[in-house]
Write a structure and sequence with these properties.
By secondary structure, this protein is an alpha/beta fold. The protein has 13 helices and 14 strands. It has a domain of about 170 residues: P-loop containing nucleotide triphosphate hydrolases (Rossmann fold). The strands form five sheets. Strands 3-2-6-7-1-8 form a six-stranded parallel β-sheet. The protein has a two-stranded antiparallel sheet with strand order 4-5. The chain has a two-stranded antiparallel ribbon with strand order 9-12. It comes from Rhizophagus irregularis.
Length: about 375
């Protein structure tokens, strides 16, 4: 299918651009997990202990079982793999579960849904609301759920986690946290936190979660030096040796920079200006046949009225990460994001690969 797509695009793209787009699309492939029949027996000890605990003890509190678990470990220890094993186990036992994540990208990576879209939650004036209280069909559907799994829990605010708990308490007319149903949260509290909100471990329901730890490294198991550096950065305890190594690698890249790594690397920066600088640099690296690119200026619409750019820049643009313009050209990638507070869409994201910049396509 990918080959057919690129073949159809080849009339618009040069050979170099075709190779770039092919590499980009290949990186986006999400292949389903294939589990051998002996998958449980082949697990490392820490993953086996976690899955055994979930299998044996997950359930309504009866003195033996417990409904709330927190699976944690640093990057590369297999948290996403364990999630897939748990969902496979729940599916085989005919349990009704829902897999959630705070962002669209995180949800896509584990094959789940965003918290806001699945639970129909909106936020306004510092509070949360859900349609489940007024939509009987949604209410009935959510009441069937016996297990909630939340990935990237560090990015969920304490207020949101407490709201979800109160929401299911009301749905089930049960005063226990989350209405007494099973909840498994997964993540690393040293990774990205929620934005401008209380950290998740400040939630009133957080003390109920029993921690299960993953410690065996899988992603960088052949590069102990890289793993040590990442752990130092993760714990905000970087040694002079690690800092010197990063500086050295940065200098080497600047001297021997090549387009390949730059075009296929995710860059995380703290300021909009840095992101715009990197985007311009990447666009300049891409081959541009016959100056075939388009500069699209931002258009701001407030209450169905288009604002003058100078007004929007003064009133609210500095408080957002929205650019003043976007450069579109073959080989570039654009993420379109939609946030609709009522009725339709909540946090939908789509990654688009540009193959043509004919003006009529954007009118």
């Amino acid at each position: 299918m990918l080959s057919r797509l690129l073949e159809s695009l080849s009339i618009h793209l040069t050979t170099d651009l075709t190779q770039i787009v092919y590499a980009q699309l290949t990186d986006l492939k999400l292949l389903p997990h294939i589990y051998p029949k002996t998958a449980m027996l082949e697990l490392p000890q820490d993953q086996y202990r976690v899955l055994s605990a979930i299998s044996m003890y997950l359930g309504r509190n009866d003195g033996v079982r417990w409904p709330f678990f927190f699976i944690t470990g640093s990057a590369g220890t297999g948290k996403s793999y364990v999630i897939n094993m748990i969902t496979r186990m729940l599916t085989q036992s005919s349990h009704s579960f829902i897999l959630l994540a705070p962002t669209g990208v995180a949800a896509q990576n584990v094959g789940g849904f965003t918290i806001h879209s699945a639970l129909h939650i909106i936020s306004a004036r510092g509070s949360f609301f859900t349609r489940a209280y007024v939509d009987n069909e949604l209410r009935v559907s959510l009441k069937r759920i016996t297990t909630i799994i939340i990935e990237k829990i560090s990015m969920v605010s304490a207020d949101l986690l407490d709201f979800i708990s109160n929401m299911f308490t009301n749905l089930h007319n049960n005063d226990l946290a989350f209405g007494g149903i099973n909840v498994i949260v997964v993540g690393d509290l040293a990774q990205l936190p929620s934005i401008n909100d209380h950290l998740v471990f400040r939630a009133a329901v957080w003390p109920f979660f029993y921690p299960l730890f993953l410690s065996t490294l899988h992603r960088q198991h052949n590069d102990s030096e890289l793993y040590s550096m990442l752990e130092e950065i993760r714990m905000d305890n970087m040694s002079p040796e690690t800092w010197a190594k990063l500086q050295q690698r940065n200098s080497e890249f600047l001297v021997h920079a090549s387009a390949g790594p730059l075009l296929n690397t995710t860059h995380i920066v703290g300021f909009r200006e840095n992101a715009q600088h990197i985007n311009r640099m990447i666009c300049n690296l891409l081959p541009v046949p016959d100056n075939k690119f388009l500069i699209s200026q931002a258009v701001d619409v407030v209450n169905s009225v288009q604002w003058d750019p100078s007004s929007s820049e003064f009133m609210f643009k500095p408080k957002t990460n929205l650019p003043l313009s976007v450069r579109l050209q073959p080989g570039a990638r654009v993420i379109s994001a939609f946030m609709v507070d009522r009725d339709v869409i909540l946090e939908y994201q789509r990654l688009t690969h540009i193959a043509n910049t004919s003006p009529h396509l954007f009118s």
